[in-house]
Amino acid sequence: MPSAFQQSVIDEFRANAGRVGGPFAGSDLLLLTTTGARTGRPHTTPLGHVRDGERLLVVGSNLGAPHHPDWYHNLLAHPSVHVELGDQEFETIAVPAEGSRRDELFARVVAEAPGYAEYQAATDRTLPVVVLELPGPRAPAPAVTSLADKLTEVHTWLRGQLAQVHAETEAHFAARAVALRGTGTPPPPGLGLQIRQRCLAFCQALEFHHTAEDGHMFPAMEGYHPHLRPVFERLREEHRSIAAVQSALAALLAGVAVAEPDDFRAELARMTEQLTAHLAYEEAEILPLLADVPWPPTP
């Protein structure tokens, strides 16, 4: 739970479209809601930020204390976060910067908010800099009025995250190739946090989606459509297979730093094909049954 002071800041922020008085008057604040690493419950924290183009930078200063703040540990465990910025709200994936990129972004923060340099001087730990990408301009999302629309929305997000994993691994291989030619800086060793956070967010969302289907949606639908029991059984079996693919995907990405690019691409493509084939089969069999089910559910 936020402290009484933090809660008063949160309440004032939400009541005044992001404007807060007192010691924070004129400050650039946002509200970051993370999922508790241990509890799984949402936690909202007011944080200062620096805007850097189409991204927001927040620093895990904890006022120079020797330990990272709780919200930072939360986002490492659950990368998908909710951001409130003025009167705008959006979901994004929180990605801590690494290596030289972290140093560059921290210098950018200090140039605008010099107090962070004092916090860094007060502790031996390296203050993490977390990147929150702003939502770009996009066409208005289709209206979600049925459970079929909601399922389509979730599947579209999952496909988008897979596409981002592909793009980020290609960027990693490109940076590695440039470094091997001696004309650039090699990417950080091990699994880059950008790729790790994206993969973790995808896997957690897919697991939550499948758990909800197996525990609630499919049993209810079987009651109305008993002749489709073989379809639901196949989907449940695919969910078990997909769980193994998720683990294999995480292991594959963990070895990206030393992987042979063509072999890596082939394995990633194979896993992606299996994941997207499952989504396509589910859509073909289930969407027609959900078209008349209202969303959000009516009381």
Q: Helical segment tally?
A: 8
Distance between the termini: 30 Å
From the spread of the alpha carbons, the general shape counts as: globular
Please bin the fraction of helical residues: 40-55%
Percent of residues in β-strands: 5-15%
Structural class estimated from helices and strands:
alpha+beta
Which strand order does the major sheet show?
Answer: 2-1-5-6-7-4-3
Oligomer: single chain
The radius of gyration is 22 Å
Poorly predicted regions are: none
Rounded mean pLDDT score: 90
- Series of H and E elements: HEEEEHEEHHEHHHH
Largest sheet: 7 strands, antiparallel
- Number of DSSP-assigned strands: 7
Q: Could you characterize what this model shows?
A:
- By secondary structure, this protein is an alpha+beta fold.
- Helices cover 55% and strands 14% of the residues.
- It is built from 8 helices and 7 strands, in the order αββββαββααβαααα.
- It has helices at 4-15, 70-77, 99-112, 115-121, 147-180, 193-224, 229-254, 261-290; strands at residues 29-35, 42-48, 50-52, 55-59, 80-85, 88-96, 129-133.
- It has a 7-stranded antiparallel β-sheet, with helices on both faces.
- It is globular, with a radius of gyration of 22 Å.
- It starts with a helix and ends in a 9-residue tail after the last helix.
- One of its GO terms (molecular function) is coenzyme F420 binding.
